[in-house]
Amino acid sequence: MEFRFLGNSGLKISAITYGNWITHASQVEDDTATQCVRAALEAGISSFDTADVYANTAAETVLGKALEGERRESLEIFTKVYWQTGPGGPNDSGLSRKHIMESINGSLTRLRTDYVDLYQAHRFDTQTPLEETMQAFADVVRSGKALYIGVSEWTADQITAGAAMAKELGFQLISSQPQYSMLWRVIEDEVVPASREAGVSQIVWSPIAQGVLTGKYQPGQSYPAGSRATDEKGGATTISRFLTDEVLTAVQRLRPLAESLDLTMSQMAVAWVLQNDNVASAIIGASRPEQVHENAAAAGVRLPAETLAAIDEALGDLVERDASLTEKNAPTERPT
Length: 336
Description:
The protein has 336 residues and is of the alpha/beta class. It has one domain (3-328): TIM Barrel (Alpha-Beta Barrel), CATH 3.20.20.100. 37% of the residues lie in helices and 13% in strands. It is built from 13 helices and ten strands. The strands form two sheets. It has an eight-stranded parallel β-barrel with strand order 3-4-5-6-7-8-9-10, surrounded by six helices. The protein has a two-stranded antiparallel ribbon with strand order 1-2. The chain is globular, with a radius of gyration of 19 Å. The termini are far apart.
């Protein structure tokens, strides 16, 4: 396993992070989820990402149980706050001081730990003053309940403002967690340059485009049984935008490129995002332990320049690069 510094900090995390969005307490049973966590540990993964909203807090519980008994100092545990949890009361979402303070306590209980290594704002809260949010995060850090603070799907301007305010308050904003893959490159033109300037690096999600870049979805054919495209608990919705015949046909053109490097298509996809020097780690999910081992093997792989060029040619104008989509896809008010 390769380890990289996270932002302008002394914290190192594994280049592959195990994440349990959609899968734990939702797509797979608890015993399989535990097997996947064990496989991650066996592969040398030390970083684990979750969020209070995943399965309405249940995913944190599953992860906490799966990691019980491990040396806490040898792990980096990440979670997030913003989306609605609980019964959906007026303060059960957002980045108000009230919600942050109550949410961190709940997350620590479910994760069976005294602190998380990284606490992330899952989205930007347009209805709470940034000063209130960042002061609450500062207090979470000073209380020892989180060691570092990060964000997820914030725009370049929001990252710049948040990092500056964090510095004024005496702590660091060190990470951004956006979607990023060969097919979804909207962070490259604005978020990545702003992050570099602010001392922030990326922990990216969906590096294999919800499984599309594995090549298992064939144009004109039925979706594989048990795949994310057939999951009615949320997976099918998140993957749908990539399931056009045009995209699936283009993805098949990547197969000989991966084979020429003795890589699976998913390994090449994960290695591709890790090639970006502002990416500290790629989050992988899994519904089977063998998927963890396969994708973890992408750590340390360097794709040659000619392969990168061939990937761009194969995907052509199907790649989404519109930087404005980070803001357009963001919530304009707190979920209720």
